[in-house]
Amino acid sequence: xxxxxxxxxxxxxxxxSLLLFISMxxxxxxxxxxxxxxxPPAYRLPAFFNSIPFLKNNFLAVMLSFAILFFYxxxxxxxxxxxxxxxxxxxxxxxxxxxxxxxxxxxxxxxICLGLWQSFSNILIFAGKVVLFGRTLxxxxxxxxxxxxxxxxxxxxxxxxxIMMTASVVFAAIIPMNTARIASTGLVTEGFMILINIFRxxxxxxxxxxFWVQGIKKNSLEHKHLSSxxxxxxxxxxxxxxxxxxxxxxxxxxxxxxxxxxxxxxIHKMYMWS
Length: 274
What we know:
Distance between the termini: 18 Å
Helix content: over 70%
CATH class: Mainly Alpha
Number of domains: 1
């Protein structure tokens, strides 16, 4: 992928993220005006949070998490254009995959605003699969960035990117959705939820270790920083997309912003001297 094509690709998604933000704001206003917005049931993941006083379920925290996420996405796309316009790096290409994964959470937002979570409809199933696609794509994006950052792999970045997207789509398509169990965040839960969460955790751990191993192999301090930064970023993302309490909202926001800054900073520093 040439720099020109890559920058055009990012610009398209910057515009798309801004349109998404406007659409989600319009959806929220419409749902409030028509009183369609429905608070999801109090089913929590994990359930023992209910027994901890400072982790009580709060619907406002859920809605604020969407606001943070929809602000975060276009800001990141802007910084990719602003600071990586002339930098040929595959890590940035795969980072756009993570931002696309964040955009997939809009399906959960619409499900809440339009009260779809209580419909048991095909639209609800589709919304759940869109979210599942995003939550599969997010860890895969960083794993691919860690595994395919070698110079020999950069000629195949488009192929690897397509494989990553296809794998996420196929995974979301084959996993059944449990529309009878809606989480407090408006999430349609998946079948085999425990196994899927273990799979995601393994992807996160493998990503962190892969960056660290790259740092050891290349004697690169920047790659080691990418290891800790990706861990912080993924942790923040995981907390934001699953938060239904102000504690996770604050901690997740801080981790997401700090992790993103450190991740992009060390990529920029690494390739600035290349």
